Amino acid sequence: MSTVWDSRWILSVLPHRYPFLLVDRVLAIEPKQRIVALKNVTVNEEFFVGHFPGQPVMPGVLVVEGMAQAGGILLLHDQPEGERRLVYLTGIERARFRRPVVPGDQLRFEVEVLHLRERHCKLAARALVEGQVAAEAQLSSAMVER
User: Fold this and answer.
1) pLDDT(39) > 60
2) Quick check: pTM over 0.90?
3) Residue 51 annotated as catalytic
């Protein structure tokens, strides 16, 4: 798929805003199946001020949150009246952190649907940097009305 979805489009799908929006671009979507998205990690991220001074590392929970946000885009982007819905993260299983994410890295989120029901979903998610897995997890979510 050659379409690239930019930050303006992402803002129309997700309710998240700065400094908590952790997806910059979507490269590919296969509806109800998978998504590939990017996060450019810069030294200006607020969390680097305290995590860790002199040796900045992106908190693993935020890497997981970025994977979850990519999954939220996958689940919401083609929903009728999607702007009236939220996707809540309800579970994290088998989370593993394989390498630190540091300023200058580009995170590539690859998220696939494992199980999909009307209001509940289980996703397999990976975050990669230069082809190496930085983190991976199975994520569960619930879709609710705003």
Assistant:
1) yes
2) yes
3) yes
